[in-house]
Amino acid sequence: MPLRHRTPHQEDEHVAKSRAPRPNPSRTPAQKRPSGAAGSTGSRPSSATSSGPRAPQSKAGRQSVAAARNSGGSNRTQLMIGGVAIVVIVAVIIVGLVLNKKNTAVPADGYGDSKASIATVADGVITISAGTPQTSIDVFEDAMCPACGSFEHQFGQQMAQLADEGKLGVRLHMLNFLNRASSSGDYSTRGAAALLAVATEAGSQPGLFLKFHTALFAEGTQPKENSGSDLSNAQLGEVAKTAGVPDAVVASIAAGKYVEAAAANAKTSQTAIQAAVGEQWATPTVLHDNKPLALNSPDWLTTLTA
C-alpha cells in the first residue's frame, strides 16, 4: 500500500493522540488476586491431617508381627521346659544321695570290737563264733583287696555283735590273688599268714582275732593296690601288737612263720570259691549254704539272721 502523508491537521491529531496519557493498566478491585492465591504474601493453609482408618499392613508386616508373637511364646515354652528339667535333675540327685547314704549305712555302728567270739583253724579255714551259732556264712577275702576293707568297715561291727550274741558264725577263707598288686609281690599271702598266726596261737582269747582282723583292714593300715609300698612282716607284727596280740604271736608274725601255710590255704580257698560261683569270682564274696549272697543292701545280714 502506498504511503500516505498526513495532513497537518491529521498530523496534529496524531501527535495529540500519541501524547495523550494512556490508561492505567492496574487491575480493578474485581481483578485483584484473591487472598491466598499463588504469589500472595500470605502463608499457605496447611493440609489437614487425615483422621480416617489406617491403611492395611502389608503381608510382610503381618508375618513379622506373627513371628514376634510366636517367638515370645517359644521363649516362654523353653523356659518352662528348662525349669522342669532342672527340677528333675535336682530330684534325681537328691534320690541318688539318699540311696547312696542308705546303701553305705553302717549297721550296728558304735558296737565296736567283738567281746566274746573266739577263732579256730581247721583245713585252712578260720572259724569265728561264740558257741554254736544259729547260722553261718563263708567269707572270702584278700588282705590287699580295697573292697574287702570297705566291707569290713561297713559290716565288721555287725558281724562282731551277731557273733557275740551266738546268732552268726563266720568261716573266713583268705585268698592271695592280689599279690601281684603289692609292691613286695606277696603281701596278700603274708597278711593271711598274720591272721593265721593269731587264730592258731591266740584265737582262744575272746574278741582278739576279730579285733586284729579289723585293724589289718583299717584305712591307713591296709596297703593300696599298686601303690609302691606295703607292710613288712615286722610291721604286720606291730599292727598285731597294737591290737593286743601277745608278744609270742607278734614274733611269729614278724618271722613269717605261717607264710607257707597261708599260701597253701589260699589255693584251697580259690578252689572252694570257684566251685561255688564259677571262674568269674571276686572278693569279697559271701556264701550261705554254699550260695552267694547279694551284698548291695545294708540289710542283707539283718535279714539273714532275723
Automatic annotation (TrEMBL):
Stretches with biased composition (Low complexity): 33-56
Domain Thioredoxin-like fold residue range list: 135-293
Chain positions covered by the region annotation Disordered: 1-74
Keyword S-adenosyl-L-methionine: no
A Pfam family: Thioredoxin_4
Segments crossing the lipid bilayer: 79-99
Keywords tagged on the record: Membrane, Transmembrane, Transmembrane helix
Statement: the UniProt record of this protein carries the keyword Membrane: yes
Record protein name field: Thioredoxin domain-containing protein
Organism encoding this protein: Nakamurella sp. A5-74
